[in-house]
Amino acid sequence: MAATQTPAAERRQVHPTLAVLERQLHLYRRLWQASVFSSFVMPVLFLLSFGIGVGGYVGELGGVDYLAWIVPGVLASVAFQMSVGESTYGVLGDFKWIRGYQAMQATPVRVRDMVGGWLAYMLLRVLIASVVFLGVAALFGALHSPWALATPLVCGLLGLAVCAPTTAFAATIDHDSYFALLFRFVVVPSTLFAGVFFPVEQLPDVVRPLAYLSPLWHGVELCRAATLGTAPGWPALAHLGYLVLWALLGSAWAVAAFGRRLRK
Amino acid sequence: MPTPLSASPAAEPLIRARGLVKRFGDFTAVDGIDVEVAPGEAFGFLGPNGAGKSSTMRMIGCVSSPTAGELSILGMDPVRDGARIRARLGVCPQQDNLDVDLTVRENLTTYARYFGLSRREARRRADELLEFVQLADRADSKVEPLSGGMKRRLTIARAMVNEPDLVLLDEPTTGLDPQARHLLWERLFRLKQRGATLVLTTHYMDEAEQLCDRLVVMDGGRIAAEGSPRSLIETYSSPEVVEARFGDAEPAEYAEKLAGIGDRVEALPDRVLVYAADGDAAVAAIHARGLAPSTTLVRRSSLEDVFLHLTGRTLVD
User: Fold this and answer.
1) Is residue A5 part of a domain?
2) Which of A126, A173, B108, B260 fits A159 for a cystine, CB–CB 3.0-4.6 Å?
3) What is the mean pLDDT of residues B91-113?
4) Chain A residues with CB inside 8 Å of B106's CB?
5) E-assigned strands of chain A?
6) What is the three-class DSSP state of B168?
7) From-to residues of CATH 3.40.50.300 in chain B
8) pLDDT number for residue B131
9) Which residues span the domain enclosing A107?
C-alpha cells in the first residue's frame, strides 16, 4: 500500500491485450467441447447434404465434382458466420449485461487491448474451426491441392475482416434487435449469393458487384483456388488486400466505438 | 506496508482537485469542486442520488475526463497517464461487473492479469484475498449463485488484487441487507487499519460516520460542507434531536406551535424534528405547551441532520 512502490507497468508479466485474450479463453473453457463438436458436426452435415445430395443432381461444376467445388465455399462461410455470430451477443453482452469491459476499463487495460484481445480470441476460434473442417473435407476426398493447407489462414483473415466491423457495430447499438437486421440483410444474402453454392457469374450483371463487396466472396475465391489448385477470380493479392482493408477499418471503428461507449 | 493514519499535512495528497467540473451536454453534474485526499485517509462523498458523487468518482478513476478544472491523481494527470494511474487504483463500482460465468477465484486471477501480474502471483493474491473477504470456501463456486453481500465482498477483493495505493468505493453497500452491510463495513475498516487510503461515495449517513475520517457533503454538483463527521455535526446541528409524531394534524402545523423550543424546529412529511442541546428537556417543553405527540424519540444528531440543515432535504427519499 506504500505510495512509492514500483509502477505496475514496469514489472508487468503479461501484456494487457494477452490478459484480455486469456479471460476469453477462460470463459471458452466451459463450452469448448460442445463448440468443437458442433464445428465438426456442422460441416459433416453440410457436406453430406449439399455435396452428396445436391451434388448427385448437379454433377460437375468448373471441371470438378460439386462436392469438391462447394467445400471451400462452405469452409469460408463457416468462418464468416462464426465471426459475425460470436461478435454480436458476445460483444453487446459484455457491455450491457456482464459489463466485463466496464470492469477492464478500471484497470490498465486500454480500449485497444480490449478490441485486440477479442479479435485474437476470435482468430483462434476461427482457425480451430477451419482446421477441423479441413480435416473432415480431406476425409471426403474433397481437397485437390496441397495449397488447401493455407485455407485456415485465409479463413482467419476473413474472420478478422468481418469480426472487426461486427464487433464495432455491436458496441454501437443498445438493443439486440438490430442483430436480426444484420443477419437478414447482410449475413444471409452474403451466404447465399457470394459464390458459396454457385459461381457469382450466374448472378445478373447489376447485382454481381454486391457479391464483390462482400468479404465472404473474396474468402471463398481464395479458399476455392487453394483447395482446387486453380487461380482465383482476381489476383490473390487483390483478394487479400481487400480483406486486410476490412480488418483494419473495422478494427479502427471498433476502437472508436468501444471508447465512445465506455466514456458514457 | 501501513501508512501512518495521522498522515502529516505536508504529505503529497493522493487526490487534488481544483475547480473540477463535469458537464454532460447542458447538464452540469459536477460544478467546480475542490478536494484533497491525503495518504492513509478514509474520505467520503456524502450526498443524495444525482449529487455528482459518481461523476466525481469516475473522473478520479480516470475513466471519464474532466470538462474543466484541475485534477491530479497520485501526482499524475488522469487524461495523459490514465493507464499508469489505474494500475495503482482499486475500484469497486456501484454496479457489480463480475464475470458471472467464471468461478470466484478465476474472477480474481483474470482481473489480476489485467494488471500484468504473473499467474503464480495472481493465484497467491487471490487465495489471500478470498481469506480476507471470507469467501475462501466458495473459491471454486460460480459467481451467479452468490448472495448480493458475497458479490460485493468479491468485488472489493478484486479491487485489492493489485495492492492499490488508493481504493475507490462507489456506493459500496447500496442494496445490501443490514447484516451484509455490517460485515462489509467491518472488512473495509480492517482495510483502513492496514493503511489503505479509501475514497467512498455514499448516501447513507451511518456508512459515512462509520468509515470516514473526513467527508464532503455534496448537493447539486457542489460541496455544501466539509469536515469530520463529528465536526460537521457540531457545526451544523445540535447535540440531540427530538423526533415527534402527531397523529391528528400535519407536522407543519405543529412545527409552528413548537417554535422556540430548542435551537431549531424542522417539519418533515411524517414528523417534526426539534434540534436541542438537551433532548429530554425539549420533550418536557413540548408537553409543557399542552401538546401531546403520539410518539417522541430522543436521539443524537447525525449527518442526516447536517444534510437536512444544509439543503432543506433528506438524504434518502
Assistant:
1) no
2) A126
3) 95
4) 26
5) 60-61, 64-65
6) strand
7) 15-228
8) 93
9) 15-263
Chain A with chain B: Cβ pairs closer than 8 A: 109
Q: pLDDT of B235-269, one tens digit each? A: 998 999 999 998 878 888 888 888 889 888 988 88
The Cα B45–Cα B204 span in angstroms is 10
Domain total in chain A: 1
Residues of B in contact with A263 (CB under 8 A): 63-65
Cα angle vertex A176, ends A175, A180, to 5°?
A: 130
Q: Tell me whether residues A19 and B110 touch, CB distance under 8 A.
A: yes
- Does any CB of chain A come closer than 8 Å to the CB of residue B152? no
State the cell numbers at B231. 465536526
* Whole-prediction pTM: 0.89
Would you place residue B10 in the very low, low, confident or very high pLDDT band (cuts 50, 70, 90)? low
Interchain contact, B63 vs A109, CB within 8 Å: no
Q: Residue A215 domain-assigned?
A: yes
Superfamily assignment of B15-228 in CATH? P-loop containing nucleotide triphosphate hydrolases (3.40.50.300)
**C-alpha distance from A143 to closest chain B C-alpha (Å):** 40
Cα of B80 to nearest chain A Cα, Å = 13
Low-confidence ranges of chain A (pLDDT < 70): 1-11
| B238-300 placed in CATH 3.30.70 | yes
Of residues A27, A108, A110, nearest to B101 (C-beta): A27
Lookup: cell for B288 = 409543557
The distance of Cα B274 from the centroid of its chain, to the nearest Å, equals 27
Q: For residue B147, what is its C-alpha cell?
A: 448472495
In Å, how far are A3, B20, B58, B72 from B65, measured between CA atoms?
23, 10, 8, 12
